[in-house]
Design a protein that fits this description.
The protein is α/β, with parallel strands linked by helices and 330 residues long. The protein is built from 11 helices and 6 strands. It has a 6-stranded parallel β-sheet with strand order 3-2-1-4-5-6, sandwiched between helices. The longest helix is centred in the N-terminal third of the chain and has 33 residues.
């Protein structure tokens, strides 16, 4: 009887040890599984990875040269932008930037009596502009762009990297950085327009592109980070869709004056200014040099872990996931 009791005690102890070991293993595995992971990293392009004004200026030079080659010897840059604004003013409904520029090209070509205006001529001019836009962006990438993207890929090999842009820039067409990107979503895309930034539609399209390439949706501990220079269109808009935003300010120039190439109306400018002011509360990280972006990404993930109480219960400043939860309540 005593022997039976000893055997039973030993069996109970072994079962208990196995249970506690299994529980500890599950707890550790659960912690590893719930540790925040960088699932998706998206970038704005213009003035985030390259200087937009420089790029558009270069493309305009090639455009004018092409227009003059086909006979429009009097074509000038200011004529293109005046025509674009005139086309924009006479339309109540949205129009793509590509369509707007092509209509402006047609207008300027038609103003020269020596030019036969047809679709082929317009397409040739626009294609020359677009090709140079990509080539110029590739030449004028901000310092640290390639190194930053390589560092991100090295540290987070499974991350999906995409571009979210309102314009026609496309990193998949830029030789220096094409191999880092999985997709590009543009406000010009048929399945997006007219839902350009800061509208939610373009960000939902980016999430859909991610889901095509990943078995894990962006939620909980699978983190989405968006990096961009525009407070309204990048920081605030992406945060409202669930991203942790990183504000990229390479040139540190904030101006109420729109760039020379802009066709935004005064009403739109006023709207974006108000949205930009509201977006300041959404800033999680800010970088003034792309070499610093990998560290900002690491900090954002660390903040997400703290917000999820995976590292410490120490009270923190309101960060990405906390802000998302607060905005969801509101």
């Amino acid at each position: 009887m005593i022997l039976f009791g000893i055997i039973l005690l030993l069996l109970c102890y072994r079962s208990y040890a196995a249970f506690t070991s299994s529980t500890r293993h599950r707890s550790v595995s659960s912690l590893k599984a719930t540790k925040p992971q960088l699932g998706l990293l998206t970038f704005d392009l213009d003035d985030t990875l390259f200087p937009c004004q420089q790029v558009v200026d270069d493309a305009d030079v090639v455009l004018l040269a092409t227009m003059r080659d086909i006979g429009a010897t009097g074509a000038q840059k200011n004529m293109i932008y005046q025509a674009m604004r005139a086309e924009r003013r006479k339309r109540a409904k949205p129009i793509t930037y590509s369509n707007l520029r092509m209509r402006a090209i047609r207008r300027v070509l038609a103003s020269d009596p020596g030019v036969e205006v047809n679709t082929d001529a317009v397409d040739k001019c626009f294609d020359a502009w677009l090709d140079e836009r990509q080539e110029s962006a590739n030449r004028h990438l901000f310092p640290g762009t390639v190194e930053m993207l390589q560092a991100i890929k090295d540290k987070y090999p499974g991350v999906c990297i995409g571009a979210v842009t309102n314009g026609r820039g496309n990193p998949l067409m830029m030789k220096k950085i094409a191999h880092f990107f999985d997709f590009c979503v543009s406000g010009e895309d048929d399945n997006v327009f007219p839902e350009r930034k800061p509208s939610p539609g373009i960000y939902l399209a980016a999430l859909a592109e991610h889901e095509k390439r990943s078995s894990t949706k962006i939620s909980g501990t699978n983190i989405w980070i968006h990096a961009g220079d525009d407070l309204a269109k990048d920081v605030g808009a992406s945060a409202r869709r669930g991203a942790v935003p990183i504000w990229v300010q390479i040139n540190e120039q904030l101006s109420d004056k729109p760039p020379a190439y802009s066709t935004a109306t005064k009403a739109e400018q006023k709207k974006y200014k108000a949205l930009a002011q509201r977006a300041r509360s959404s800033i999680d990280e800010k970088v003034e040099c792309l070499y610093d972006l990998p560290l900002a990404v690491e900090n954002a993930l660390l903040e997400a872990a703290k917000d999820l109480n995976l590292i410490s219960n120490t009270p923190l400043k309101e960060g990405g996931n906390a802000k998302m939860a607060a905005s969801a309540k509101n």
